């Protein structure tokens, strides 16, 4: 059995394609490939590897889609329509490429269950611990954004009937319960419902804003400034925070990796990525540009509040399952990393024992509890996303994929001019990630401080209505 610090290259991987380099029967090949995988197949073991590539693509869609489509429209005013559109297309294309790089590396080393395992292969145990910490923190923070989204929906639907902290607590309990489902394949059918609910809700908002004479948040009588700008004029902190938020809207690609370990055929991973990211890119671009064109600077954040109170309540009612499932997936991903890390190479990993279930439930409840605290401490949706984008996802989704590629393609340095240029571009990818980490974190911290000073955030654990449905 492979030990956790002995992640080895599969004999069936050559370069960036998976072709056998030995003559073997299909049965022998399957046995060898199973030996290198994290989750084994066998009698008496829970079979985790049941996810088809279609279901994987829907899981990826749900991981990515909810936070971005709710946050991007409000950022268009800061950047302007054209720079905003360039950011959306540029970041989603880059994140798609980095997802493929990570998938190729994982299939080369199938013992890698997470991005932290990959970091161990290229940088040793210290880098593994650093990346594992960042990975866990990342999904705990984005789970906090999911809790904020659900509490906002509760406030909108009930017209802020109780303290927002209580709504956040209720959201946390629901999310923790859903996240405690053990297998991605069992969550799979929920992701169909979640994705459809968010998509329909945003479509309703698009229809709602285009049928109004003026934005719901704008003055309802007299002249008003729509605030539509083709090119904005943000300062550094505003611009880098907006870019970080758009980046993070499609940057959760490290959450794809644990799903590969539960796919029936891990080699089908690229198909799932291309399908999901194509739909994400098209949806982000069209929805955000249309909502911004009709609402200008009067866009709400999250964007479901942009078409007036009645339409907002309808949209949040429809989107509620999707918001819950988003938070569920983020908690599940963080908990699954800890779960595998704790029980890896023990019989309890794939056995229905007390230790197995106790460890799993402790991971999900613990991650959800930390997310609840963060959601109440920084209760503004965009700031939470920008913070996690700069502080965690920039190194995970940009720097590390660049490093993985460089470590796997050393021969490019001895190749022709094109190969050397390709190698240099991946070095620049690492530098881009470092810039986003330092610059983005600085910009978000400055903006959070300004929000507290200006009263946008009244206090941590505030009971104030975060949906804008009442004046309280």
Automatic annotation (TrEMBL):
Membrane topology category: Multi-pass membrane protein
Main location: membrane
Annotated compartments: Membrane
Keyword Transmembrane: yes
GO molecular function list: L-amino acid transmembrane transporter activity
Gene3D superfamilies, A to Z: Amino acid/polyamine transporter I
Any one GO cellular component localisation term in the record: membrane
Record flagged with keyword Transcription: no
Chain ranges passing through the membrane: 58-76, 88-105, 126-150, 156-177, 189-209, 236-260, 272-294, 314-339, 360-381, 387-406, 427-448
Highest taxon listed in the record's lineage: Eukaryota
Compositionally biased intervals (Basic and acidic residues): 1-11
InterPro entries per record: AA_transpt_TM (IPR013057)
Pfam family, one: Aa_trans
Region (Disordered): 1-27
Keywords: Membrane, Transmembrane, Transmembrane helix
Domain Amino acid transporter transmembrane: 50-445
PANTHER family listed in its UniProt record: AMINO ACID PERMEASE, PUTATIVE-RELATED, AMINO ACID TRANSPORTER
Family recorded in the similarity comment: Belongs to the amino acid/polyamine transporter 2 family.
This protein's name: Amino acid transporter transmembrane domain-containing protein
Species of provenance: Penicillium cinerascens
């Amino acid at each position: 059995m492979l030990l956790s610090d002995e992640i080895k290259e599969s004999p069936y991987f050559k370069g960036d394609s998976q072709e056998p380099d030995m003559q073997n029967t299909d049965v022998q090949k399957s046995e060898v490939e199973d030996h290198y995988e994290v989750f084994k197949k066998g009698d008496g073991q829970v079979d985790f590897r049941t996810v088809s590539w279609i279901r994987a693509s829907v899981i990826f869609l749900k991981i990515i889609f909810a936070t971005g489509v709710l946050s991007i429209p409000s950022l268009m005013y800061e950047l302007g329509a054209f720079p905003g559109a360039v950011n959306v297309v540029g970041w989603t294309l880059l994140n798609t490429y980095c997802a493929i790089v990570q998938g190729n590396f994982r299939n080369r080393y199938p013992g890698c269950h997470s991005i932290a395992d990959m970091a161990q292969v290229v940088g040793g145990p210290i880098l593994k611990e650093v990346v594992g910490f960042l990975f866990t923190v990342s999904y705990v923070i984005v789970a906090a954004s999911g809790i904020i989204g659900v509490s906002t929906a509760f406030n909108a639907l009930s017209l802020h009937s109780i303290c927002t902290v209580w709504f956040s607590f209720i959201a946390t309990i629901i999310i923790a319960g859903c996240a405690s489902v053990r297998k991605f394949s069992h969550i799979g059918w929920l992701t169909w419902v979640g994705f459809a609910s968010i998509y329909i809700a945003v479509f309703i908002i698009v229809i709602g804003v285009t049928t109004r004479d003026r934005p719901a948040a704008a003055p309802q009588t007299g002249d008003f400034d729509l605030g539509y700008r083709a090119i904005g004029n943000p300062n550094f902190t505003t611009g880098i925070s907006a870019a970080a938020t758009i980046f993070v809207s499609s940057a959760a690609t490290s959450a794809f990796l644990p799903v590969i370990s539960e796919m029936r055929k891990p080699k089908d991973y690229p198909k799932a990525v291309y399908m999901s990211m194509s739909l994400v890119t098209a949806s982000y671009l069209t929805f955000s540009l249309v909502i911004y064109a009709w609402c200008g600077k009067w866009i709400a954040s999250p964007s479901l509040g942009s078409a007036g109170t009645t339409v907002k309540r309808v949209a949040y009612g429809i989107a509620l399952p999707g918001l819950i499932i988003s938070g569920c997936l983020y908690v599940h991903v963080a908990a699954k990393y800890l779960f595998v890390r704790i029980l890896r190479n023990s019989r309890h990993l794939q056995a229905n024992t007390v230790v197995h279930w106790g460890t799993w439930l402790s991971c999900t409840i613990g991650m959800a509890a930390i997310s609840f605290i963060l959601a109440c401490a920084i209760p503004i949706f965009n700031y939470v996303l920008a913070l996690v984008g700069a502080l965690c996802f920039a190194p995970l989704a940009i720097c590390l994929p660049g490093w993985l590629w460089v470590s796997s393609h050393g021969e490019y340095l001895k190749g022709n001019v094109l190969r050397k240029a390709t190698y240099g571009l991946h070095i620049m990818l690492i530098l881009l990630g470092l810039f986003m980490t330092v610059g983005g974190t600085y910009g978000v911290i400055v903006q959070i401080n300004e929000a507290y000073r200006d009263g946008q955030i009244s206090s941590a654990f505030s009971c104030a209505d975060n949906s804008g449905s009442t004046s309280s």
